[in-house]
Amino acid sequence: MRPDAAVRQMEYVIAAELDSGEWGHWDEQLYGDAFDTLAEEGSSEQMTDLIARLRADVTAGSRPGPEEVERHTRHVLDGRPLTDGGEK
Fold first, then answer.
1. 71: confidence class by pLDDT, cuts 50, 70, 90
2. Max CA-CA distance within the chain?
3. Would residue 85 count as lying in a domain?
4. Is 9 a member of any domain?
5. Which ranges of 1-88 would DSSP assign to H, the alpha helix?
6. Exposed, middle or buried by CB within 10 Å (0-12, 13-18, 19+), for 14?
7. Where is region (Disordered) located (predicted)?
8. Which DSSP symbol is given to 74?
9. Model pTM?
10. Is residue 88 part of a domain?
11. pLDDT tens digits, residue range 3-48?
């Protein structure tokens, strides 16, 4: 999967899950950076995993901010499950 295709997937997720359906330059940049990182350092499967993780947040009513997106991206790349924020 290409990073731009992954960004479009996130646009569809947000439009489908959130009442506002708002999508802007901020979103495109935020998610684009994460998927660019995965394209350089990871794989298409990891992009799909990141989409699933972010979708879970959006479905739960949370719109992931920069810190959450970065945290999810790092965990996908590291292959570690999310924890309560303790030491790695």
1. very high
2. 36
3. no
4. yes
5. 3-17, 25-41, 44-59, 66-78
6. buried
7. 59-88
8. H
9. 0.72
10. no
11. 888 878 777 777 776 665 566 666 777 888 888 888 899 888 898 9
Structure tokens at 12: 């569809």
Distance CA 35, CA 56 (A): 17
Residue type, 16: A
51 domain residue, yes or no: yes
- Pairwise CA distance, residues 20 & 13, whole Å: 12
Domain range enclosing 51: 3-16+24-78
Residue 14: its H or E element: helix 3-17
Closest-CA residue to 48 (of 22, 10, 12, 74): 10
The total number of structural domains in the chain stands at: 1
- How far is residue 14's CA from residue 83's CA, in Å, rounded to a whole number? 25
